[in-house]
Write a structure and sequence with these properties.
The complex is a heterodimer of chains A (about 110) and B (about 120). Chain A has about 110 residues and is mostly beta strands. Helix content of chain A is about 0%, strand content about 50%. Chain A has strands at about 5, 10-15, 20-25, 30-40, 40-50, 55, 65, 75-80, 85-95, 100-105, 105-110. Chain A is globular, with a radius of gyration of 13 Å. In chain A, about 40% of the residues are buried. Chain B is an all-beta fold and about 120 residues long. Chain B is built from no helices and 12 strands. Chain B has strands spanning about 5, 10-15, 20, 25, 30-40, 45-50, 60, 65-70, 75-80, 90-95, 105, 110-115. The chains are: A mainly beta (about 110), B mainly beta (about 120). The interface of A and B includes residues 45, 59, 103 and 106 of A.
Chain lengths: ~110, ~120
Protein backbone atom coordinates (compact mmCIF):
# COMPACT_ATOMS: atom_id res chain seq x y z
CA UNK A 1 0.00 0.00 0.00
CA UNK A 2 1.33 3.42 -1.01
CA UNK A 3 1.74 5.49 2.09
CA UNK A 4 3.63 8.00 4.17
CA UNK A 5 4.38 6.84 7.68
CA UNK A 6 5.39 8.89 10.69
CA UNK A 7 6.69 7.79 14.06
CA UNK A 8 5.88 8.32 16.77
CA UNK A 9 2.23 9.36 16.40
CA UNK A 10 2.14 10.89 19.85
CA UNK A 11 4.98 12.20 21.95
CA UNK A 12 5.20 14.07 25.23
CA UNK A 13 8.63 15.33 26.12
CA UNK A 14 10.36 17.98 28.21
CA UNK A 15 12.13 21.16 27.23
CA UNK A 16 15.63 20.61 25.91
CA UNK A 17 15.49 16.86 25.32
CA UNK A 18 16.49 16.15 21.74
CA UNK A 19 14.00 14.21 19.68
CA UNK A 20 13.53 12.91 16.16
CA UNK A 21 10.29 12.32 14.32
CA UNK A 22 10.74 9.90 11.47
CA UNK A 23 9.00 10.06 8.11
CA UNK A 24 9.14 7.42 5.42
CA UNK A 25 7.42 7.02 2.06
CA UNK A 26 7.25 4.02 -0.26
CA UNK A 27 6.19 5.80 -3.45
CA UNK A 28 9.66 6.73 -4.73
CA UNK A 29 8.75 10.41 -4.51
CA UNK A 30 11.46 13.00 -5.01
CA UNK A 31 9.78 15.63 -2.91
CA UNK A 32 9.24 15.48 0.86
CA UNK A 33 8.19 18.13 3.33
CA UNK A 34 7.37 18.83 6.96
CA UNK A 35 4.52 21.02 8.20
CA UNK A 36 3.25 22.05 11.56
CA UNK A 37 -0.41 22.73 12.23
CA UNK A 38 -1.50 25.19 14.88
CA UNK A 39 -5.02 26.44 15.66
CA UNK A 40 -6.00 29.41 13.53
CA UNK A 41 -2.81 29.24 11.48
CA UNK A 42 -3.42 26.29 9.20
CA UNK A 43 -0.40 24.30 8.11
CA UNK A 44 2.96 26.03 7.85
CA UNK A 45 5.88 24.56 6.03
CA UNK A 46 8.99 23.90 8.10
CA UNK A 47 11.44 22.35 5.62
CA UNK A 48 11.19 20.62 2.31
CA UNK A 49 13.44 18.52 0.12
CA UNK A 50 13.40 18.29 -3.65
CA UNK A 51 15.63 15.22 -3.70
CA UNK A 52 18.35 13.35 -1.83
CA UNK A 53 20.83 15.69 -0.12
CA UNK A 54 18.77 18.74 -1.13
CA UNK A 55 16.84 20.55 1.60
CA UNK A 56 15.38 24.05 1.85
CA UNK A 57 13.76 26.15 4.51
CA UNK A 58 10.05 26.68 4.54
CA UNK A 59 8.30 29.46 6.40
CA UNK A 60 9.01 28.38 9.99
CA UNK A 61 12.39 26.53 10.08
CA UNK A 62 13.72 27.96 13.36
CA UNK A 63 14.39 25.28 15.97
CA UNK A 64 14.23 22.40 13.48
CA UNK A 65 16.69 20.38 11.44
CA UNK A 66 16.15 17.86 8.68
CA UNK A 67 18.23 15.51 6.59
CA UNK A 68 17.63 13.63 3.36
CA UNK A 69 20.24 10.91 3.07
CA UNK A 70 17.90 8.45 1.41
CA UNK A 71 15.04 9.07 -0.94
CA UNK A 72 12.43 7.37 1.23
CA UNK A 73 13.28 9.00 4.60
CA UNK A 74 13.05 12.58 5.82
CA UNK A 75 13.45 12.83 9.59
CA UNK A 76 12.60 15.98 11.54
CA UNK A 77 15.01 16.76 14.37
CA UNK A 78 14.36 19.04 17.31
CA UNK A 79 17.74 19.55 18.95
CA UNK A 80 16.38 21.44 21.98
CA UNK A 81 12.58 21.40 21.98
CA UNK A 82 10.70 24.25 23.58
CA UNK A 83 7.03 24.56 24.57
CA UNK A 84 6.27 26.72 21.51
CA UNK A 85 7.04 23.69 19.38
CA UNK A 86 4.04 21.90 20.81
CA UNK A 87 2.03 21.22 17.69
CA UNK A 88 0.65 18.70 15.23
CA UNK A 89 3.27 17.77 12.65
CA UNK A 90 2.65 16.37 9.20
CA UNK A 91 5.10 14.87 6.77
CA UNK A 92 4.25 14.83 3.07
CA UNK A 93 5.74 13.46 -0.14
CA UNK A 94 5.04 13.96 -3.82
CA UNK A 95 6.30 14.05 -7.37
CA UNK A 96 7.97 17.32 -8.19
CA UNK A 97 6.17 17.67 -11.50
CA UNK A 98 2.57 17.93 -10.37
CA UNK A 99 2.75 19.48 -6.89
CA UNK A 100 0.34 16.96 -5.42
CA UNK A 101 1.32 15.89 -1.92
CA UNK A 102 0.48 12.77 0.05
CA UNK A 103 0.34 13.34 3.78
CA UNK A 104 1.29 11.13 6.67
CA UNK A 105 -1.09 10.56 9.59
CA UNK A 106 0.42 13.28 11.76
CA UNK A 107 2.49 13.38 14.96
CA UNK A 108 1.10 15.18 17.96
CA UNK A 109 4.00 16.60 19.96
CA UNK A 110 3.73 18.15 23.41
CA UNK A 111 6.76 19.85 24.95
CA UNK A 112 6.44 20.52 28.66
CA UNK B 1 4.57 36.77 -1.68
CA UNK B 2 1.98 34.06 -1.80
CA UNK B 3 -1.03 34.11 0.45
CA UNK B 4 -4.20 32.10 0.95
CA UNK B 5 -7.15 33.55 2.83
CA UNK B 6 -10.06 31.57 4.17
CA UNK B 7 -12.14 34.27 5.77
CA UNK B 8 -14.70 31.92 7.27
CA UNK B 9 -13.34 30.51 10.51
CA UNK B 10 -16.39 28.39 11.34
CA UNK B 11 -19.60 27.60 9.54
CA UNK B 12 -22.57 25.79 11.02
CA UNK B 13 -25.35 24.37 8.85
CA UNK B 14 -28.19 21.94 9.21
CA UNK B 15 -28.06 18.69 7.30
CA UNK B 16 -29.16 18.93 3.66
CA UNK B 17 -28.29 22.59 3.40
CA UNK B 18 -25.83 23.69 0.72
CA UNK B 19 -22.69 25.40 1.97
CA UNK B 20 -19.88 27.27 0.21
CA UNK B 21 -16.39 27.60 1.63
CA UNK B 22 -14.47 30.58 0.33
CA UNK B 23 -10.83 30.70 -0.66
CA UNK B 24 -8.98 33.74 -1.98
CA UNK B 25 -5.35 33.52 -3.02
CA UNK B 26 -2.52 35.83 -3.96
CA UNK B 27 0.43 34.99 -6.16
CA UNK B 28 2.54 36.65 -8.82
CA UNK B 29 3.28 33.37 -10.53
CA UNK B 30 1.52 32.59 -13.76
CA UNK B 31 1.79 28.85 -13.15
CA UNK B 32 0.40 27.66 -9.86
CA UNK B 33 -1.73 24.96 -8.32
CA UNK B 34 -4.66 25.18 -5.94
CA UNK B 35 -5.81 22.46 -3.60
CA UNK B 36 -8.53 21.63 -1.14
CA UNK B 37 -7.98 19.22 1.72
CA UNK B 38 -10.39 17.86 4.30
CA UNK B 39 -9.34 17.16 7.89
CA UNK B 40 -11.99 15.10 9.69
CA UNK B 41 -12.04 14.85 13.50
CA UNK B 42 -9.67 11.87 13.27
CA UNK B 43 -6.97 14.31 12.18
CA UNK B 44 -5.66 13.00 8.87
CA UNK B 45 -5.52 15.19 5.78
CA UNK B 46 -7.62 14.00 2.88
CA UNK B 47 -6.89 15.32 -0.59
CA UNK B 48 -10.00 16.56 -2.38
CA UNK B 49 -8.92 18.36 -5.53
CA UNK B 50 -6.03 19.96 -7.41
CA UNK B 51 -6.49 22.63 -10.04
CA UNK B 52 -3.72 24.24 -12.08
CA UNK B 53 -3.78 27.86 -13.11
CA UNK B 54 -4.41 27.09 -16.75
CA UNK B 55 -7.56 25.13 -16.12
CA UNK B 56 -10.46 27.33 -15.07
CA UNK B 57 -13.09 24.72 -15.65
CA UNK B 58 -15.34 24.15 -12.71
CA UNK B 59 -15.40 20.64 -11.36
CA UNK B 60 -18.10 18.53 -9.81
CA UNK B 61 -17.56 15.33 -7.89
CA UNK B 62 -20.73 13.96 -6.40
CA UNK B 63 -21.99 16.49 -3.85
CA UNK B 64 -18.77 18.50 -4.09
CA UNK B 65 -18.11 21.24 -6.61
CA UNK B 66 -15.38 23.79 -7.07
CA UNK B 67 -15.50 27.19 -8.70
CA UNK B 68 -12.16 28.58 -9.87
CA UNK B 69 -12.13 32.20 -11.00
CA UNK B 70 -8.79 33.75 -11.88
CA UNK B 71 -10.40 37.17 -12.30
CA UNK B 72 -11.20 37.29 -8.59
CA UNK B 73 -8.36 34.98 -7.46
CA UNK B 74 -10.86 32.69 -5.84
CA UNK B 75 -11.24 28.94 -5.61
CA UNK B 76 -14.46 28.28 -3.73
CA UNK B 77 -15.77 24.92 -2.62
CA UNK B 78 -19.46 24.05 -2.41
CA UNK B 79 -21.00 21.06 -0.68
CA UNK B 80 -24.52 20.33 -1.86
CA UNK B 81 -27.01 18.69 0.49
CA UNK B 82 -24.52 18.58 3.35
CA UNK B 83 -24.30 15.56 5.61
CA UNK B 84 -23.06 15.09 9.16
CA UNK B 85 -20.02 13.24 7.77
CA UNK B 86 -18.98 16.45 6.04
CA UNK B 87 -18.18 17.96 9.44
CA UNK B 88 -14.46 18.69 9.30
CA UNK B 89 -11.88 21.39 8.86
CA UNK B 90 -11.29 22.26 5.23
CA UNK B 91 -8.04 23.76 4.00
CA UNK B 92 -7.33 25.59 0.77
CA UNK B 93 -3.70 25.60 -0.37
CA UNK B 94 -1.52 27.17 -3.07
CA UNK B 95 1.71 25.92 -4.62
CA UNK B 96 3.71 27.62 -7.37
CA UNK B 97 6.58 26.62 -9.63
CA UNK B 98 8.87 29.40 -8.51
CA UNK B 99 10.37 29.39 -5.03
CA UNK B 100 10.79 25.65 -5.13
CA UNK B 101 7.92 23.60 -3.92
CA UNK B 102 6.66 25.84 -1.15
CA UNK B 103 3.02 25.30 -0.35
CA UNK B 104 0.95 27.89 1.47
CA UNK B 105 -2.15 26.82 3.35
CA UNK B 106 -5.07 28.91 4.45
CA UNK B 107 -6.03 28.94 8.12
CA UNK B 108 -8.87 26.52 7.47
CA UNK B 109 -12.65 26.62 7.81
CA UNK B 110 -14.32 24.43 10.40
CA UNK B 111 -17.64 23.12 9.13
CA UNK B 112 -20.26 21.82 11.54
CA UNK B 113 -23.17 19.94 9.99
CA UNK B 114 -25.97 19.32 12.46
CA UNK B 115 -28.47 16.53 12.07
Amino acid sequence: EAQVTQNPRYLITVTGKKLTVTCSQNMNHEYMSWYRQDPGLGLRQIYYSMNVEVTDKGDVPEGYKVSRKEKRNFPLILESPSPNQTSLYFCASGRTGDHEQFFGPGTRLTVL
Amino acid sequence: AQKVTQAQTEISVVEKEDVTLDCVYETRDTTYYLFWYKQPPSGELVFLIRRNSFDEQNEISGRYSWNFQKSTSSFNFTITASQVVDSAVYFCALSADTGGFKTIFGAGTRLFVKA
